[in-house]
Amino acid sequence: MNAKLDPLVSEFENAEQAALYDEWLRAKIEAAANSKKPRVPHDQVMTEMHELLQSKCKAREGGG
Hints:
Elements: H1 15-34, H2 42-61
């Protein structure tokens, strides 16, 4: 049985879709947690994103 889920409760159409997404997300999280790549500090990411957004806003204001 694959009953439709209430859109006010879930963004998925049915429990099967929700379960597949949950499985995918858990695999991504596990892969990231086990990654040997160097970690990037939160403050560094926030600074870089702020600079990126500022440059995008300036480009938009300047017409391109």
